[in-house]
Design a protein that fits this description.
Layout (H helix, E strand, L loop, with lengths): L8 H4 L3 H12 L5 H7 L4 H4 L3 E2 L7 E2 L13 H35 L11 H10 L9 H17 L13 H9 L7 H11 L8 H31 L5 E5 L9 E6 L3 H11 L2 H9 L5 E6 H11 L3 E3 L4 H6 L5 E4 L8 H5 L5 E4 L10 E2 L7 H15 L13 E5 L3 H7 L9 H9 L4 E5 L11 H12 L2 E6 H10 L13 H10 L4 E5 L4 H14 L11 E5 L5 H12 L3 E4 L17 H14 L2 E4 L3 H18 L14 H9 L3 H9 L6
């Protein structure tokens, strides 16, 4: 069979730095995910969710109308099982991250974690008090110990309700109870979902997906929220910090250590070790001028938003960073790490170092990370990288990087809008109610090499900004915007609608807010919850003019995130492949699983999930949904012509209006005759 021809680099990535490295890879005859994806045709049966591999009688591929698996399982059952298992896989990954963070908090509280300390005592005290833990006349360590115990218990709890779900709006909690999806314990729901999808168990698509929703809620309002909270307590709640993004952050003269994965416990220690004067002198003794730590994927977001550590790129940059020949060590922990980086690194001097007890890669160096020796282990890794500097040969680092501002936690947004004494989401709510901001779009998620890297993220972002939609981003989507320069106060304001531009110019905030890593999508839920609590935008998340989307999704975690956002009341759009699409030749009607995630979930939770592969349709449906929610709240119809004049000129125009129309002009709200 003839080898398929790869797409031109312009169709593989819109990032000029990535394009440069892809051309170089082709010149030296090395493959990457960008080329391998063109050689690997997707299975249209499995991709449509119509292949069952749950037992040894199969696999069963259902391609004809009315066909069933050997056990009699229908297409609807098989699709629901496959989707539910994907959601459970994603929930287990993010929630296990939260478990590890809770155990780290416990170790820090008991003085058993080298190099760590509690950095945000205020958040520690707030959360402990919220959950009913005594805080008066107690040390931070004592409070942290009890909070850690509470969090750890949430994973193994068998009955009752996850205590962390109390952070959701009260009305939303009642929705979950009524729909029987209030989670009992994080691990309990993951096991329940895997059990019910085993051969011979749950064979009703509606019931299977009910369990999957409960599992996803346990992730978003359980494990993921715990991970975010503990990271803030230990490493500091993010506030705006300057940083840089793209492969140009790698240094030609210094030791380059790239951290990649998702858990901040190791990466924060790597950063600390790299700044130790002893380590810097050690690097100089090996011929380097210093040490540069940069990040890939969500580890990049974790270190960027708290320390300003530069981001070398998102998910699809992990191979490209090695191709520069400038990386002494790529240090990985868990999630989104390609096995391909090890054989690729053999062509260069880069050492791949795995660190998690859960993750080994054949051919990589394994240095297991433990919190009780955290700083010592980090220094050991840094020393190995310094020793490897002498093996560096020719480098090819693209001279491309962009400045950015990251670190917009919901706590900082609250402060940004009102200051220390009047912190409030009121200005944001008022801007939406008036129509200066049409609504909010959370554009999140992965890169997928079957897409043109970053294209969908960036095009959707551009259209949202033009239409006065405030954009918040996490994960690889956030790094995509960072590389394009959308995360600066003055960034792209010529491309931003007049109402949103007024807000950005007044506050100095970027038109795209970086709110963290993928696990920090829980942070977006807390923002929406605060907006609801502030008033004026309904009494639950499903009433807020907001949309979530993952234009280039590729992981099971994305399925879990999408599902817990839907269960929270959000309309969520996923770009690319649809795992419950089915095939037209099998049925001309909508399959049950696809009907459940859209129509049935909207009836139960006020949110729905749709898979759309056309970018124009994504934009159209997003804006239509925002406008529908505005109308339901009796807010003024979006009209960009009302905004955008300079402050002085607008005030002159307003003074010339009849008295009864001045308030309407100022605040966008009709006052009547």
């Amino acid at each position: 069979m003839a080898k398929k021809t790869s797409r031109p680099v312009e169709e593989q990535s819109i990032d000029p730095a990535a394009q440069e490295m892809l051309i170089y890879a082709e010149q030296i005859g090395l493959s990457t995910a960008f080329t391998r994806v063109d050689e690997m045709a997707p299975c249209n049966i499995g991709g449509a969710g119509m292949c069952c591999k749950m037992c040894g009688m199969g696999p069963c591929r259902l391609t004809k109308d009315g066909s069933t698996g050997i056990c009699g399982a229908t297409i609807d059952t098989i699709q629901a099982r496959n989707l539910a298992r994907g959601i459970a896989g994603g929930a287990s990954a993010h929630s296990d991250h939260g478990r590890d963070m809770a155990f780290t908090l416990k170790a820090v509280a008991n003085g058993e974690a080298q190099g760590y300390r509690i950095r945000d005592v205020a958040k520690l005290r707030y959360l402990a008090d919220f959950y009913g833990i005594e805080i008066e006349d107690r040390t931070p360590a004592e409070i942290a110990n009890d909070l850690a115990d509470l969090y750890i218990a949430q994973f193994g709890q068998q009955k009752g309700e996850l205590v962390v779900t109390r952070r959701a709006p009260k009305k939303r909690q009642e929705v979950w109870r009524k729909a029987n999806v209030m989670p009992r314990g994080v691990d309990r729901e993951v096991v329940d979902t895997l059990h019910r999808t085993h051969i011979g168990d749950d064979q009703d698509a509606f019931h299977i997906l009910e369990g999957a929703v409960r599992c996803a809620v346990a992730d978003g309002w359980g494990g993921s929220l715990i991970a975010t909270d503990v990271s803030d307590i230990l490493f500091g709640t993010p506030a705006p910090v300057m940083g840089e993004a793209n492969l140009g952050v790698l240094s030609k003269t210094e030791v380059n250590v790239v951290v990649h994965g998702h858990e901040p416990t190791l990466s924060m220690m790597i950063v600390a070790a790299s700044q130790d004067p002893e380590m810097i002198e050690y690097a100089k003794s090996r011929g380097a001028e210093g040490i540069v730590v940069s990040g890939i994927c969500c580890t990049a977001n974790e270190t960027l938003m708290r320390q300003g550590v530069p981001a070398a790129g998102n998910f699809l940059h992990q191979e490209l960073a090695i191709l520069t020949g400038a990386v002494e060590a790529m240090v990985v922990d868990v999630q989104c790490i390609m096995q391909a980086i090890v054989p690729l690194a053999e062509n260069f001097h880069t050492e791949i170092v795995t660190t998690s007890p859960k993750v080994k890669i054949t051919g990589a160096t394994h240095i297991e990370f433990h919190e009780d020796r955290a700083l010592d282990i980090a220094k050991e890794i840094i020393k190995r990288a310094c020793d490897n500097f002498v093996n560096r040969k020719e480098t090819k680092i693209p001279d491309l990087k962009s400045s950015l501002i990251a670190g917009f936690s919901h706590e900082y947004i609250n402060y940004m809008l009102g200051g220390s004494y009047r912190g409030s989401f009121r200005p944001l709510n008022d801007a939406i109610m008036a129509g200066r901001i049409r609504g909010v779009a959370a554009i999140i998620g992965c890169n997928n090499p079957r897409s043109n890297q970053d294209y969908l993220h960036i095009e959707v972002t551009k259209e949202m900004l033009k239409n006065d939609v405030l954009v918040v981003q996490t994960g690889c989507g956030a790094i995509a915007s960072a590389k394009l320069g959308f995360m600066l106060g003055e960034a792209g304001l010529d491309q931003v609608g007049p109402g949103l531009r007024e807000i950005c110019e007044t506050t100095g905030m970027p038109p795209v807010l970086h709110v963290g890593s993928c696990v920090d999508n829980a942070r977006i839920l807390t923002v929406l919850t605060q907006m609801v609590a502030e008033g004026g935008l309904g009494d639950d998340i499903d009433q807020v003019p907001a949309v979530g989307m993952a234009p280039e999704w590729m992981s099971e975690k994305a399925l879990s995130i999408a599902t817990y956002c839907v269960a929270s009341g959000a309309y969520v759009i996923m770009g690319g492949s649809n795992p419950v699409a089915g095939m037209e030749k099998v049925s001309n009607s909508q399959f049950v699983a696809e009907e459940v995630i859209s129509k049935e979930w909207e009836r139960l939770y006020g949110g729905r999930l749709e898979f759309i592969d056309d970018i124009d349709e994504i934009i159209k449906r997003t804006l239509a949904h925002i406008d529908k929610k505005r109308k339901a709240l009796n807010l003024p119809k979006y009209d960009p012509a009302r905004w955008g004049a300079s402050g002085d000129r607008r005030m002159v125009e307003i003074e010339e209006l009849p008295l009864m129309r001045r308030e309407e002009a100022l605040y966008g709200m009709p006052v009547g005759d």
